[in-house]
Specification:
CATH topology of the largest domain: Malonyl-Coenzyme A Acyl Carrier Protein, domain 2
Distance between the termini: 13 Å
CATH class of the largest domain: Alpha Beta
Helix content: 40-55%
Number of helices: 14
Strand content: 15-25%
Order of helices and strands: EHHHHHEHHEHEEHEHEEHHEHEH
Strand order of the largest sheet: 8-7-2-1-9-10
Oligomer: single chain
Structural class: alpha/beta
CATH superfamily of the largest domain: Malonyl-Coenzyme A Acyl Carrier Protein, domain 2
Number of domains: 2
Radius of gyration: 19 Å
Shape: globular
């Protein structure tokens, strides 16, 4: 029996022109760009279509832009009769999953992640925090090293548990740099500093979490249909109150992506559809389970190919 999960990428996947081909082809897709502009009070669509890339990459622009494209693609698939049994998203992508699962409206989602981006940007001054990808070690090895460095006064922790052998750490700049050196000594193949604007999913984001809670408290949230697999606990969640609590925790907690994919596999998911620009999540899923059926939808050609494959 075919079971489908829609998965949505996080920051880093944004690029100028994303989703434009679909808005030109489908009037309903164009409406997502228009609704986003109206909800935010500025022309996000122009920034997405024309750039510059540096402006689009700013966290408070990238977040609503990625949610817009992901929700638009999920809607196009659903309209074509491809309906998910579960949804999940990587970090920011979890909000796109909330929209796809009817927890909040598209307009509420766009406004929430714009504010989330502003809070995250304000929480830690530029240059204070950092993130790095660690290749070749497991979670336990990375956690042991980061806990030791944190205890010595430089906060750093696992932030994204992406797939076997790929873990992202986050924290103060000095903490991340010290951890990179220590993890290479511990056997990491590589430790790569990431070009990000803040130490996401670390304890340094706790000030932003309290502001985010106030924003989410203003939104009437529905139970998730279909259910969402949450970043924080990698568990299947439907209850809106629980989802709200987890969204706040998500800002300063690790994204348990590998465990989330395994949860869906254990619950019978046979096909994963990545809705959004790029193929980052598709690559991670293949590293978690090489036999998984994975589709990345980001333009007209990939949309039609996925619809044909899943309807066939």
């Amino acid at each position: 029996m075919t079971k489908i999960a829609f998965v949505f990428p996080g920051q880093g996947s944004q690029k100028v022109g994303m989703g434009q081909e679909l808005t030109e082809k489908y009037e309903q897709s164009q409406q997502f760009f228009q609704k986003a502009d109206a909800a935010l009070g500025f022309s996000l669509s122009q920034l997405m279509e024309e750039g510059p890339q540096e402006q689009l990459t700013l966290t408070y622009h990238a977040q609503p832009a990625l949610l817009t494209v992901g929700a638009m693609i999920a809607n196009a698939l659903t309209e074509a009769g491809i309906k998910p049994d579960y949804t999940a998203g990587h970090s920011l992508g979890e909000y796109t999953a909330l929209v796809a699962s009817g927890v909040m409206t598209f307009e509420e989602g766009v406004k929430a992640v714009h504010k989330r981006g502003l809070y995250m940007n304000e929480a830690v001054p530029a240059g204070v925090g950092a993130m790095a990808a660690i290749l070749g070690l497991d979670t336990e090895q990375v956690t042991t090293v980061t806990e030791k460095i944190t205890a010595e006064g430089d906060a750093v922790q696992p932030a994204n548990l992406n797939c076997p052998g790929q873990i992202v750490i986050s924290g103060t700049k000095s903490g991340v740099e010290k951890a990179c050196e220590a993890l290479k000594e511990a056997g990491a193949r590589r430790a790569i500093l990431l070009d990000v604007s803040g130490p996401f999913h670390s304890s340094l984001m706790e000030p932003a979490a309290s502001q985010l809670k106030e924003t989410l408290d203003e939104i009437t949230m529905n139970d998730a249909v279909p259910a969402i697999v949450a970043n924080v606990n990698a568990e299947i969640v439907e209850d809106s109150d629980q989802l709200k609590v987890l969204l706040v925790e998500q800002l300063y907690s690790p994204v348990r992506w590998e465990d989330s994919i395994r949860t869906m596999l254990e619950n019978g998911v046979t096909h994963f559809v990545e809705c959004g620009p790029g193929k980052v999540l598709s690559g991670l899923i293949k590293k978690i389970d090489r036999k998984a059926n994975v589709y990345a939808v980001y333009d007209e050609e990939t949309l039609q190919a996925t619809i044909e494959a899943l309807k066939g």
